[in-house]
């Protein structure tokens, strides 16, 4: 009887599947977190690219209107997933200075999801000062 009990306690068959069953939810959550982080980085890169294209357009084009600059930003954005892209804001008000520059601001909100629970919504705001060719 005692020999049989000791033999069963030393038996390691099935231990790997138990370890796998315990570790797979943690690994899945970890991999999904990496994916969510990559989506956030891609959204930031897409915003920065769109802002740079709009700044280049405003600098090179002789007299761009705010609507044309906003259209350029919207057409140049990429990598924005299921978040909310707000209308680009262009500030032309400069205290006492002539119209030599514009401040372009874009904003994007990206919700995060970590499979088992909803994560925070991350909001990015980027601005760029564009000096116009006069």
SSE map:
Layout: H1 2-10, H2 15-60, H3 66-76, E1 84-85, E2 89-91, E3 101-114, E4 117-131
Terminal-residue CA separation: 98 Å
Q: How many domain regions?
A: 1
At the third CATH level, what is the topology name?
A: Pantoate--beta-alanine Ligase, Chain: A,domain 2
Q: Sheet bearing the most strands, described?
A: 4 strands, antiparallel
Number of strands: 4
Beta fraction: 25-35%
Helix content: 40-55%
The average pLDDT value, as a whole number, equals: 83
Low-confidence regions: none
What series of H and E elements makes up the topology? HHHEEEE
Notes on the protein architecture:
- It is built from three helices and four strands.
- The protein has 134 residues and is an alpha+beta fold.
- It has one domain (2-131): 2-Layer Sandwich (Pantoate--beta-alanine Ligase, Chain: A,domain 2), CATH 3.30.1300.
- Strands 1, 2, 3 and 4 form a four-stranded antiparallel beta sheet that branches.
- A hairpin with a 2-residue loop joins β3 (101-114) and β4.
- The chain is rod-shaped.
- The N and C termini lie far apart (98 Å).
